[in-house]
Amino acid sequence: MILDSIELFVSVLAISILHAILPNHWLPVVAISRQLGWDGRKTAGVTMLAALAHSLSTVIIGILVAMGGMSLNGILPYFKYIAAGILISLGILFVWRHQHHMHFHLRELKLTPQTNMGVIIGSLLLAMFLSPCLEVGALFLVAGTKGIVLTLIIAAIYTVTSALGMTFFAWMALHGLKKMDWHKLEHNSGLVSGIILIITGLVFIFSH
């Protein structure tokens, strides 16, 4: 029980940090910030809102998945192994496809200082809300077999890490963070996430 709970915490934290680093989470905000001449404080605030919108949809889906897991765990004695198997299967799929997040693109959105701020921020928040983190959502299925407390802890870890991480990297980008190979990191994010899901599923199986 303790081992697989710790593994879940570590897995959610690792995937949350990984996706907070990826530029397609915060780079659109930075691009708009530079285009419209926002200061660092305003950029950080909008990035934080975008991160919270992204986290909200993930947590909503995750809690619904966890509730389903709780119900099935009460009906099926061995559902915890089924949940672990689903994690492993998803992990294999991510590794095979080297899948990365399908997030929004705002390259074709032409903005001027006269563009309504509500339209700009609303578009960002809606786009981020409609792009939940599926990898973390899958982890909620396993968390649900452990109860609502663990599920809420997982939700809190993901929300805080995503919000702080995205805001931090957006702030760093404004201050000249250009040397990292972002394309390579983004390309391999699905591979890393898949491996994390596989390891989590295996630990969950063999720790019982």
Describe this structure in words.
Helix content is 79%, strand content 0%. It has helices at residues 2-21, 23-36, 40-75, 79-97, 117-129, 134-144, 148-174, 182-206. The longest helix has 36 residues, at 40-75.
Structure, briefly:
By secondary structure, the chain is mostly helical. It has helices at 2-21, 23-36, 40-75, 79-97, 117-129, 134-144, 148-174, 182-206.
Layout of secondary structure:
Blueprint: H1 2-21, H2 23-36, H3 40-75, H4 79-97, H5 117-129, H6 134-144, H7 148-174, H8 182-206
Tags for this model:
elongated, 8 helices, mainly alpha, 0% strand
Tally of DSSP helical segments: 8
Relative helix content: over 70%
Care to count the β-strands?
A: 0
**Uncertain parts:** 99-109
Structural class: mainly alpha
- Radius of gyration in whole Å, from Cα? 18 Å
Main sheet, how many strands, which sense, barrel?
Answer: none
Intertermini distance? 8 Å
Order of helices and strands: HHHHHHHH
How much strand content do the residues show? under 5%
Give the averaged pLDDT, no decimals. Answer: 80
What gross morphology would you assign? elongated
